[in-house]
Structures are given as C-alpha cells and as structure tokens.
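Help needed: design a sequence for this.
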C-alpha cells in the first residue's frame, strides 16, 4: 500500500508559479511530481492538485500520455480502476525539475521583487 499524497504537497505560494522554467502546461510538472513514487488513481491526484478541475486534469493527463511521459492502465472489473504512472521518459524529467525547483528557491526573493516591480502583486 502506497502512502497517500500529501494534500499540502503544493503550497499555493510556492515558487512553482514564479519560476520562468516551465515543464508543459501549468499542471504538467505537478502531475509528474505526484507520480514520482509510483502509480496513482485520478482521485488520488485530485488531493494535492485541489485547484484543478476534473476536465483540466483529464486534459493534462491525456497530454502527458500523448507525449510519452505517463502510461494509463485500466483494470477491468465490476468497478473499472485506472492508474497513471511515469514512463522512463517521464521519470527522466524528475532530475531537471528538481534542479529548476532548487533554482527557484535560491532566487525566490529576486523573482518576487521582479514581479512586484512589473506591477504584479506578491
């Protein structure tokens, strides 16, 4: 049995929204991080990604699957169960994503100051 995903995994004020380094769409990197420790069901992904609608999560998962980053496995039965998991290609993004996060943390204040100077609130 896997540990449940932390509902506070993505702090609303975390640097992920500030970093100029993007991995796919707004949710792409966060979904990959949710799958870092093994396969997850759609409902499990919704816990830490509480700001995402079901429609947008579905669209993002399909894009990740199309791009070869994740696999979708449907298990037959009276109640169909679907899990999403990282492919080796998707897993290869974890290291560059960690480097981007470390960079954003190191430059957090500078990023905030730049946003503020450009007229965007902290």
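Sure. Designed sequence:
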């Amino acid at each position: 049995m896997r540990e449940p995903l932390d509902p506070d995994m993505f702090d609303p004020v975390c640097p992920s929204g500030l970093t100029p380094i993007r991995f796919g769409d707004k949710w792409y990197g966060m979904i990959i991080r949710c799958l870092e420790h093994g396969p997850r069901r759609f409902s499990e992904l919704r816990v830490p990604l509480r700001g995402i609608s079901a429609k947008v999560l579905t669209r993002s998962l399909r894009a990740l699957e199309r791009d070869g980053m994740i696999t979708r496995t449907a298990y037959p039965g009276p109640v169909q169960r679907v899990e999403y998991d990282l492919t080796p290609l998707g897993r290869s993004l974890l290291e560059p994503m960690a480097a981007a996060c470390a960079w954003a943390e190191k430059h957090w204040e500078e990023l905030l100051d730049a946003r503020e100077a450009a007229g965007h609130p902290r």
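The mean pLDDT is 85.
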